[in-house]
Each structure stands twice: as structure tokens, then as C-alpha cells.
């Protein structure tokens, strides 16, 4: 029997895997993370506009939908410009770190998001320690041990910046990317709340649709400032030979199309399956990347063991947070705590 929910979450899983692998290849070959970030932000802009168009047709062109997408105050635009700086920095740091560490190590560190979220919410948002269950705290133990195992082992696969110093800088940059990703999640939740000093009260797709053009402009400015345009021209002349030109173009085209489609698939998967299925799919992607890293990159047993422990902790955390689901007294929707953050509704745009 045809199952739309299974189809969408399967598409999300494979598209997420393709984007991660092609990001790694492109950053290692071209070393232009800001230009890659600009292309992803542009693809996100296109995909969210497609979503908005579909929603507009589905709602029969209601006036409220049109006004939400056209009338924004100057204050809202100012908030979005500031937030887009974090948005662009998060993606750029992630893309840059992909060129400095192995895929398995990158995914292991990124899997520490639950532990980082709890730490930020307790320290920055002053949430009480009792707001998390005992099972949630216990799930952080394998996550922490796994990261220690993975990051303290040698990483000879770092070809772009060889040596222990480069490996340490790559690990530090990957940790920074994980912190920025969690901080972006916290602020995204704050922006979408109905009340609050930074609230803009916009749906996820509308919020990302307005953020993306700002992110494209900022990424292009950073690329110009860091000389990526000149570097790209020189790299193209050396890489684009008769033997490699087709492969690079195919990788770039696959990356762009997958990044654009990923946002559409993640939106539908969130709507149909919920965040728990998304978290499990993300951890399955990490397991597959571990197998690829083992057979292709030659990662040692400590990296593999540490990464698997981190993934187990992430799955445990997801199921622990699932227990916090409860009905809202207002409209019967579900209020779910995802990564320690409360939000109302069933639709979120992921994969960004």
C-alpha cells in the first residue's frame, strides 16, 4: 500500500545524505564555502517560494496568506537581517569544516546538538534543571563519551590541511558549527513565538523565504571579501580538464538540485511524520556515513566506536524528548519539546 509519510521521510533521508556527501566533495575540491553557501541559500529561496505558491493555491488565495507574505514592518526586516548573519555564518562554518575533518568526525560532533542545546538552555535561557527528565540527562552520557573517543583519535584523512594542528583547528571549527546550529535553532524558535521581544510571528517557510535573499547577498559579500571569486577562477582552470570536468559539473549540479529538493522533502516529512521520525532518519544517515568513512576514509575503531555511541545517545535523546509531548489546551494541537525548545504546530521546515 502506498504510504506518503514513508515516501517523504525516505526522500529526506537520501537527499540529506547526498547533500552532505557532495558538500564534502565540493569543499575539498574548490575550497569556496561562502560561494557554496550562497548557492544553497538561493536554492532555499527558490524552494520556499515553491512551497508558498503551493500553499497559496491550496488555500484558494486567501487574503490572510497574501498579506503575511507581503507586508512586513521595518522592525521585522531589521531582525531578519541580523538573524540572517547567524544563518549564513552557521552554513558557512559547516561547509568550511567539512573540508577540514572527515565525514564521520564531522557527523559525530554535529550529533552533540542535544547536549549543546541543554547546556545553552540552562545557561543562557536560565531554564531550570528540572525542566529535563532524568532519561534526557542520561542520554547525554553516551553522546559525551562518544565525542571524546572520536576527537582524541588520530585523523590522517585530513588532506587539505595535514598535521595535528590542522586537525585540532578542524575539530574546533566543527564544534563551533554545532554550537551555531543549536543557537540558530533557539533563535528560530524565539522568532516564531507569538509573543516576545524578537518575535516576528511568521511561519517557518515564510521566515526562511525572507531570510534567504539576505543570506545570498551576505554570502556573496563574504566570498568577495575572502577572494573566493579569484580563487574559484584559478581552481577552475586547473581542475576542469577533460577527465574531471564532467565529474565536477555533475557533482555541483547534484548538490544544487539536492539542496533545493531537500527543503521541500524535509517540510513534507516534518508535516507527515513529525520530528521523532526526522531525528531517527538523521541518525540513520550518520550510520551510513560512518560505513562510508570506514571503507573509503579508513577511519579507526575509536572514531567508529565514538560515533556510534554519539548516535545512540542522539536516538535515546529523541525518544526521551518524545515523552514530553502533550496536548495544547487551546486548540488540541501538540506542543512538543524538540531539542529542549517548545513550539506549537506540526509543520516545520528542516534541513537548513
From TrEMBL:
It holds the Pfam family TPT. The chain crosses the membrane at residues 36-54, 74-93, 105-125, 137-154, 166-187. InterPro entries: Sugar_P_trans_dom, TPT_transporter. One of its GO terms (cellular component) is endoplasmic reticulum membrane. The keyword Membrane applies. It is a multi-pass membrane protein. The keyword Membrane applies. Residues 6-292 form the Sugar phosphate transporter domain. Keywords: Membrane, Transmembrane, Transmembrane helix. It is found in: Endoplasmic reticulum membrane. Belongs to the TPT transporter family. SLC35D subfamily. Involved in the import of GDP-mannose from the cytoplasm into the Golgi lumen. Homooligomer. This is Sugar phosphate transporter domain-containing protein.
Amino acid at each position: 500500500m502506498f504510504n506518503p509519510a514513508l515516501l517523504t521521510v525516505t526522500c529526506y533521508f537520501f537527499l540529506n545524505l547526498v547533500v552532505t556527501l557532495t558538500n564534502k566533495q565540493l569543499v575539498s575540491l574548490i575550497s569556496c564555502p561562502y560561494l557554496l553557501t550562497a548557492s544553497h541559500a538561493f536554492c532555499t529561496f527558490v524552494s520556499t517560494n515553491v512551497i508558498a505558491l503551493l500553499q497559496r493555491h491550496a488555500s484558494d488565495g486567501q487574503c490572510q496568506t497574501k498579506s503575511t507574505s507581503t507586508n512586513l514592518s521595518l522592525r521585522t526586516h531589521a531582525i531578519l537581517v541580523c538573524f540572517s548573519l547567524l544563518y549564513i555564518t552557521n552554513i558557512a562554518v559547516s561547509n568550511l569544516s567539512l573540508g577540514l575533518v572527515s565525514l564521520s568526525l564531522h557527523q559525530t560532533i554535529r550529533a552533540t546538538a542535544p547536549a549543546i542545546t541543554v547546556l545553552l538552555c540552562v545557561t543562557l535561557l536560565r531554564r531550570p534543571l528540572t525542566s529535563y527528565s532524568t532519561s534526557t540527562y542520561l542520554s547525554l552520557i553516551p553522546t559525551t563519551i562518544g565525542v571524546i573517543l572520536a576527537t582524541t583519535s588520530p585523523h590522517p584523512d585530513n588532506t587539505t590541511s595535514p598535521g595535528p594542528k590542522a586537525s585540532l583547528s578542524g575539530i574546533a571549527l566543527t564544534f563551533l558549527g554545532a554550537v551555531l546550529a543549536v543557537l540558530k535553532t533557539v533563535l528560530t524558535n524565539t522568532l516564531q513565538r507569538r509573543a516576545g521581544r524578537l518575535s516576528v510571528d511568521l511561519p517557518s517557510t515564510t521566515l526562511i523565504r525572507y531570510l534567504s535573499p539576505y543570506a545570498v547577498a551576505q554570502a556573496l559579500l563574504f566570498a568577495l571579501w575572502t577572494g573566493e571569486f579569484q580563487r574559484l577562477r584559478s581552481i577552475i582552470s586547473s581542475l576542469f580538464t577533460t577527465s574531471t570536468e564532467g565529474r565536477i559539473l555533475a557533482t555541483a549540479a547534484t548538490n544544487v538540485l539536492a539542496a533545493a529538493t531537500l527543503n521541500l522533502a524535509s517540510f513534507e516529512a516534518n508535516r507527515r511524520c513529525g520530528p521523532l521520525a526526522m531525528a531517527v532518519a538523521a541518525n540513520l544517515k550518520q550510520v551510513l556515513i560512518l560505513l562510508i568513512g570506514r571503507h573509503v576514509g579508513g577511519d579507526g575503531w575509536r572514531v567508529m566506536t565514538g560515533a556510534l555511541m554519539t548516535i545512540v545517545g542522539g536516538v535515546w535523546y529523541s525518544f526521551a524528548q518524545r515523552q514530553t509531548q502533550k496536548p495544547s489546551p487551546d486548540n488540541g494541537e501538540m506542543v512538543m519539546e524538540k531539542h529542549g525548545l517548545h513550539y506549537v504546530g506540526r509543520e516545520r521546515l528542516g534541513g537548513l
